[in-house]
Design a protein that fits this description.
91 residues; two-stranded antiparallel ribbon
């Protein structure tokens, strides 16, 4: 196995670890206020993004406000807070 292949496998495993921290509360996407138009609530009560793989960029909230979706690590690194962030597995 090449170094590049090992690195790729490591990155995939790290991404899985990161994604598993999410409790799917939807608060970072506005579930407790004016949610993103792409935020969906599953039958299990957890939230998910209907466009997750292409979510980053400009979208709208349910009320029509412009929303700029950024990686959660950017929100945390910049010190942002939001309603319900105390439930966030990443914080």
């Amino acid at each position: 196995m090449t170094d590049l292949n090992r690195y790729h496998e490591w990155m995939v495993s790290q991404n899985k670890v990161w994604e598993e921290k999410c409790f799917c509360c939807g608060s970072c996407c506005g579930s407790l206020e004016d949610p993103c138009e792409n935020l969906q609530k599953g039958l299990n009560g957890k939230f998910y993004c209907s466009v997750y793989d292409k979510r980053l960029g400009e979208w709208r909230t349910i009320s029509g406000q412009v929303l700029r979706c950024v990686p959660i690590r950017d929100k945390i690194a910049q010190g942002h807070s939001w309603p319900g962030d105390e439930h966030c597995g990443y914080k």
